[in-house]
Amino acid sequence: MSRKSNGIDVRPEVAFVSTYPPTECGLATFTQDVLNAVERHGWRGLVISADHEDYIDHPDPRVIYQIRREEMGDYVEAAELLNRSQVRVVSLQHEYGIFGGEMGEYIIPFLRRLEVPVVTTLHTVVPRPTDVMRDILRKVVLHSNAVVVMATTAVHLLREVYEVPTDNVYVIPHGAPAPLPIAQQEAKALIGFSGRTVLSTFGLVSRGKGLEYVIRALPEVVKQFPNVVYLILGETHPKVRAREGEEYREMLMAEVERLGLQEHVVFENRYLSLEDIRLYLRATDLYITPYLNPDQITSGTLAYALAAGCVVISTPYLYAQEVLADGGGMLVEFRNPDSIADAILQLLSDPMLMRYHRAVAQKKAAMLNWDAVGRAYASLFERMARVPTHPFSVVPSSAVSEFIHQRAVS
Hints:
Rossmann fold, 7-stranded parallel β-sheet, 6-stranded parallel β-sheet
């Protein structure tokens, strides 16, 4: 596809509607990563950033409009701006918590006014929604030309719980960066933990992460493996910090002191860059997601860990159940330090088991890398750009490309 004509950028344009850096949240990072990935496959990415209190002087020139969270008029104005633009496709990143009104209902007037084809990526599909949640998600799906989910389980939930057609729903995995191309021991040396067995969890810290249960599992682990260190990587979620300060982190630190684990738990209290994450994951022996929400349908941190070839220990939330079903790690019980300790000890005591799960994780890395994911989104955008723009339009269910796996099984 030609990108320039007489010095003019002629790539087709896609506009992402989502939170976006410098906002510190996983959705913002995901949006930037997808945008960069599809630009490498022939598209020009633009952004309508959401969840603002007020307008900011945005550092990225690709941001063409900012939606103030609780200003209904901004949603309508954004749609009208896109209707007048050269944008061929809109990529809506849907999460209940980022748009205004009850459970994010202000996104519905945006979709109703929009005349450009829409590809919506669903980051949350709750198995037991409230009536309001169900109604909003139904409307979002029915106003979308195509829908992307990151787990096959979400397709079944859309059909059975939300009662929407799924012949325009596609599974595209959560993307992740390539592993850092250095030896694990070199990575450990760079972060100051040469000779240690490294466990880690990264991401914005909040109570729903269940980190205290890993801390409480460690006394049994360090009895047998005294060189173990558990790294809690990331700052407190900004919205949590605004609401309650560092109360949760202080509780975790007090628990570490109570259990005498000061030499075995390290807090890295800052927002991590991508290169930081790649380095820490390369140094990690066991990656742990002890999350407490059983309905969680995606996890960027788990995808990143698998893409880095880490062996994973996770509670059995929906996404973890699916991606670890054929190996790559072990599932443990919710809120159960003994279960976590048993899994850690089983893996660290059995090098062959560790090698098996690491080999499975490495096989999964290819389908998770951003190049493959970007190609999948670019192919889907190309196809959607050809369809008539009409509310409630439904896209035929033939495959978009070899990288897009349609899972709407009957």
